Amino acid sequence: MKIIMLGAPGAGKGTQAKRIADKYSIPHISTGDIFRANIKNGTELGKKAKTYMDQGLLVPDELVVDLVVDRFKEADCANGYVLDGFPRTIPQAEALDTALTAIGESVDYAVNVEVPDSNIVARMSGRRACLNCGATYHLEHIPTKVEGICDVCGSEIVLREDDKPETVLNRLKVYHDQTQPLIDYYTKKGILKEVDGTKDMAEVFDAIIAILEK
Ligand code: ADP
Ligand code: AMP
Question: Which ligand 2 atom lies nearest to the CA of residue 52?
């Protein structure tokens, strides 16, 4: 099963993608997590990506596409994967289609997690991320067991630089300009599925599973 998660930054793509990946034992591929790991490790890619990410801008397509195409050719992707944060532009979606077509495959579902802009800033300012293992929490909705400490790996959790309100507004604009057109793109392909992301996490998850198992 090959699934794309669509939605505004903070809509809950990553939260749901992790659960889907666990349920179906398929990898969760988050381009944001890959970039953050590169930044943490001080790689050339990380240095380049950081300049865009800190401003709430998209990393250029040419730095993203090969990364993902190489990743989904790895052995653990044989039964599918959940893509989270990719594609984010029409050229990325076209590149993904081209790469999949070349190996006789295609995306099964593009799940759009719909959350209005008015909810997003609160979601993002409450988000806390573990930059060590990628786990995500929310101060009110999904708190850690011990304040400030990741439940999974025990590292400190932080407010991401790009989750500060001034950057979030920029990210929302970028989302509407460059990523939202993908909703039309996947609607035309007949694989777009919508879920109401304002519901609580478990309800959103149930709605997604109902779609995948229909
Ligand atoms: P995205 O991957 O789309 O950027 P996340 O999955 O990281 O978004 O979710 C953004 C924030 O909102 C996180 O702090 C997360 O814990 C919280 N969150 C996710 N889903 C819900 C939900 N259904 N209700 C309330 N908060 C949520
Ligand atoms: P995310 O963790 O998905 O919210 O992504 C964080 C940031 O990483 C984004 O705001 C972008 O700067 C960058 N990024 C992640 N995925 C992509 C992508 N597919 N294309 C371009 N930039 C990306």
Answer: 12
Strands 28-30, 81-84: pairing is parallel
Beta strands in the chain (DSSP E): 2-6, 28-30, 81-84, 109-114, 127-130, 136-138, 157-158, 192-196
pTM of the model: 0.95
Residue 30 CB partners (closer than 8 Å, separation 6+): 14, 17, 84, 85, 134
Q: Is there a contact between 31 and 64 (Cβ–Cβ < 8 Å)?
A: yes
Per-residue model confidence as pLDDT tens digits over 100-151: 999 999 999 999 999 999 999 888 999 999 999 999 999 999 999 999 999 9
What structural domains and CATH numbers belong to the chain?
A: 2-115+178-212 (3.40.50.300)
CA of 202 to the centre of ligand 2 (A): 25
Q: How far is the CA of 29 from the centre of ligand 1 (A)?
A: 16
Positions marked catalytic: 13, 88, 127, 160, 171
Q: Is the CB of 121 under 6 A from ligand 1?
A: no
Grouping H, G, I as helix, E, B as strand and the rest as coil, residue 130 is strand
Strands 81-84 and 109-114: unpaired
Q: How far apart are CA 208 and CA 212, in angstroms?
A: 6
